[in-house]
Design brief:
The protein is of the alpha/beta class. The protein contains 16 helices and twelve strands.
């Protein structure tokens, strides 16, 4: 049995780590890989980092996690394969990645954001000055020196191929057994819920559509309500609006509370590298996605086929209005969206692809007999 060490930033509470690493571990275990997942931060530090307060607590926890990480790095030679998901240490890339690369000949790098570009506007982050010490073009060296790169979408894959020919694109996917589908509600008189799921770092993107949402609220007073998941401090000037924190145990139930899910994005180098995961979540659970056609979002959403794409304020208003007024349209787009996820963005379809990457790196060259066909592996 081959052993694999995953070095990642956060515990399972972090969406990126949960969907890019943790959910694949059982499949790798079944394929004969003994996996050890080593997040940098503890759940305690992860929760603390979500607030602007508790500085002393953050410092003490970060010191503990730093010592723990250094001890973990001393174990790298014991593993057959090491996977770095985004970063080894929160800052100073590629300093600690070089340590791993010196200790192991088989290092896979995994990333799901344009970390080579980073946020251009860090004002919404809790610690914007510290963020400037993260990532940057230092990741280019890591991409070039790793034995294989797993990228979250074709844009990230194309960037990685500038430095490394051994690149596999695996989208951020969902387990369709866990992401149960909910039929769109069609009850006459029941309010339609327009919602969003995200975090402090993505909530600024809502500013572009807030005027549209206010217009929708006026036009459909009493017929529409708004729900924002993941950043309770976000309190827009909207009637019938609620903002709630993200809760892991309530993740699917909260998504099921949405009839329409929105994903506005500005067009920047950072956002073009995103994996459209909000839209994937909406589409998997039954909410109709309305999104900006930025990056790979237009690959995922076929306009008026399995969702709607909107560029301008007028297009956002028309798209939301059409969905609020037309239950038949909502149902058609919702059903088609779920089929898209099951066919092309499901864990069952893509787990064999990740296993094949490990087989290639370790020289095992074996494939699961019952593996589902994979679109681009």
């Amino acid at each position: 049995m081959k052993s694999v060490l995953f070095l990642l930033a956060h515990p399972i509470e972090d969406a990126g780590c949960r969907y890019r690493v943790y959910q694949f571990v059982p499949y790798l275990d079944n394929a004969g890989y003994r996996c050890v997942v080593a997040p940098f931060s503890t759940p305690h530090l992860f929760r603390a980092l979500r607030s602007r307060n508790h500085l002393l607590n953050k410092v003490s926890q970060a010191a503990y996690c730093s010592v723990r990480r250094l001890l973990e790095l001393s174990r790298v030679p014991q593993f057959d394969v090491v996977v770095i998901h985004r970063e080894v240490f929160p800052f100073f890339t590629p300093t600690f990645e070089r340590m791993v690369l010196r200790s192991s000949q088989k290092v896979i790098f995994s990333f799901d954001d344009a970390i080579y570009a980073g946020h251009h506007d860090v004002s919404a982050l809790n610690h914007p000055l510290l963020y400037r010490l993260k990532y940057g073009r230092g990741v280019d060296e890591v991409l070039g020196r790793c034995v294989h790169v797993v990228a979250g979408n074709r844009i990230l894959g194309d960037y990685a191929r500038r430095f490394n020919p051994h690149v596999t694109v695996i989208p951020t996917v969902v387990d369709c057994d866990y992401y149960r589908y909910r039929e769109p509600q069609t009850r006459t008189g029941a309010p339609i819920t327009v919602g969003w799921a995200g975090s402090r770092s993505t909530v600024p993107y809502l500013a572009a559509v807030e005027p549209v949402l206010r217009s929708i609220a006026r036009k459909y007073a009493g017929k529409v309500q708004f729900r924002f998941i993941g950043h309770p401090d976000y309190q827009p000037d909207l009637p019938a609006s609620t903002s709630i924190p993200f809760e892991l145990d309530a993740e699917i139930a909260d998504l099921h509370s949405l009839d329409i899910g929105i994903m506005p994005l500005p067009d920047t180098e950072w956002t073009r590298g995103k994996c459209a995961f909000k839209a994937i979540q909406y589409m998997a659970t039954g909410a109709v996605a309305v999104a900006s056609p930025v990056g790979v979002t237009a690959d995922l959403i076929e306009h008026n086929g399995n969702g709607l794409l909107a560029r301008t304020a007028d297009e956002w208003f028309q798209s939301l209005s059409a969905l609020i007024e037309d239950a038949v349209l909502r149902r058609r787009l919702s059903l088609n969206a779920r089929r898209t996820i099951e066919d092309a963005y499901s864990l069952h379809a893509w787990a064999p692809c990740l296993v094949s990457v490990f087989d290639e790196v370790t020289g095992e060259r074996r494939f699961a007999a019952d593996a589902a066909p994979v679109p681009t592996c």
